[in-house]
Amino acid sequence: MDDLAERVGVTRKTLAKVEVGDLAVGLGVALEAAALTGVPLFHEDTSRLTLDADLAQARAALLPARVRRRDTDEVDDEF
Asked: pTM to 2 decimals?
């Protein structure tokens, strides 16, 4: 763990926070740790992306109406 923390450029304590998903850790630190350990964060397969989006929508549908997002506009992800 010390070696990975050194490669990421953080302390062992910060790396432990990355492991548990502490929101205080910077996104760049988490991305660097994921890249160095080979943890995939994104899928290149568009069908997998669609599946993930559908799963997220299904999970959101389980939330009480008072906490669900009200807007139903589609996201324009064509950059």
From this structure: 0.52
